[in-house]
Design brief:
With 228 residues, the protein is an all-beta fold. The protein has no helices and 19 strands. It folds into two domains: 5-126, Immunoglobulin-like (Sandwich); 135-225, Immunoglobulin-like (Sandwich), CATH 2.60.40. The protein has a six-stranded antiparallel beta sheet with strand order 1-4-5-9-8-7, with no helix packed on it.
């Protein structure tokens, strides 16, 4: 069992898996077993999982599965059961789908791949150091980094995903409500689909206390306070 880092790294170019066909889970005592199934383009059960990785991002409080599947029947799901709070299946910059499973606390895990039909099975149980992060989840934006409990650093890596009609997100760094730095990220607007974004903001020795995410019309979608 690993408490952080890569659980599996699978390379299979040309696999028949093109779609995430379902995410299910079952419990056995304190253990959670998450099963991700894959299908072909036409919806038939695939025989071999696509190229994928699975990692525990401890600082974010997320189990992330990157894949080369290009579609998904699952968009998001509220779980609120044991170790798992919820899950999201966003679209990345390459047009592939990844899965973020938001964890409820310190977790360790291991993974295995199965064929005919194609599945990824991840076993989770409580364990590891207590210092685990947590993403900020709002109706239209999820901030994975920086998440809740963020601290001031010279560089802010902003990653997450958004859903809705917004094509631009403005990222504003503030101190006492005064703008310190601002940038934006462009999205491919796809209502009903979570679209991933990433940006790096260089602050150096400038002092700041919050990050605000807003749409092009100025509507505030999310905000993160920073601890010194």
């Amino acid at each position: 069992m690993l408490t952080e880092g890569q659980l599996v790294n699978w390379e299979r170019p040309g696999a028949d898996s093109a779609r995430i066909d379902g995410v299910s889970w079952r419990t056995a005592g304190e253990c959670h077993v998450v099963t991700i199934s894959f299908a072909t383009d036409d919806g038939a059960p695939a025989t071999t999982p696509p190229t994928l990785t699975a990692r525990i991002l401890r600082s974010a409080g997320v189990l992330r599965i990157d894949s080369e599947a290009t579609s998904s029947v699952v968009v998001d799901q509220l779980v609120e059961d044991g170790l798992i709070d919820r899950l999201f299946v966003p679209l990345d910059a390459r047009g592939n789908r990844f899965i973020d499973i938001v964890l409820n606390g310190p977790t360790e895990g291991r993974a295995r791949l199965m064929t005919s039909p194609a599945r990824l099975e991840i076993e989770l149980q409580p364990g590891g150091p207590p210092d685990v992060g947590s993403p900020l989840v709002t109706e239209n934006v999820v901030l994975v980094e920086p998440g809740l409990g963020a601290t001031v650093e010279p560089v802010i890596d902003v990653t997450g995903y958004s859903t809705g009609t917004a094509e631009t997100l403005n990222l504003s760094v503030l101190r006492g409500g005064v703008l310190i730095e601002e940038t934006s990220v462009e999205l491919v607007s796809q209502p009903g689909i979570w679209t991933g974004f990433a940006s790096t903001i260089q602050l150096g020795d400038r002092v700041y206390d919050s990050l605000r995410v807003s749409s092009a019309d100025g509507s505030v979608l999310a905000g993160i306070p920073f601890s010194p």
